[in-house]
Amino acid sequence: QALRYLLRGGPDCLLVGTNRDHRLPLEGGAGIPGTGCLVKAVETAAQREAFIVGKPNRFMFDCVAGEFPVDPARTIMVGDRLDTDILMGNDCGLTTLLTLTGVTALDEVRGHQDSGCPARQSLVPDYYVDSIADLLPVLGE
Questions:
Q1: pLDDT tens, position by position, 49-66
Q2: Which of 67, 73, 79 has the alpha carbon at shortest distance from 25?
Q3: Which residues are within 8 A (CB) of 37 and not within 5 positions of it... i.e. 6 or more apart?
Q4: Contact assessment for residue 119 and residue 113, using Cβ atoms and an 8 Å cutoff
């Protein structure tokens, strides 16, 4: 249906995607295809690239910062993916915190950190926790 709209609307019909997450993790190491798989399928069929409004694109952050007084120095981006959550946080000048309960392992972080490649180092968080539950004691203060 998306392809039909795009063909009918011509080049002025905007193709918008929420994110490029290719896999969503489930318990026990299982996973399901993410929205990025659907976006890629439509992009391929339509022969055009989608405008991604979600992470890692800073579009949503800029929308929020345009409406509310967001101080990047006092804002932390918490997420479980390096290529979306942490990348966006770093690109927006936020402190970043990786939770290791998602698709990212600490060895992957260390590989990026030790790479010497600026693009890979933009995927390195400032901090990490094993689980989001590790933040509960701090949030109670």
A1: 999 999 999 999 999 999
A2: 79
A3: 22
A4: no
C-alpha pair distances (Å), 119 with each of 25, 29, 56: 25, 27, 13
Question: Which CATH homologous superfamily contains domain 70-132?
Answer: HAD superfamily/HAD-like (3.40.50.1000)
Give the amino acid at 75.
Answer: T
Distance CA(140)–CA(96), nearest Å, equals 20
The CATH H-level superfamily of 1-52 is: HAD superfamily/HAD-like (3.40.50.1000)
For 95-105, the pLDDT digits (tens) are: 999 999 878 89
Whole-model pTM?
0.83
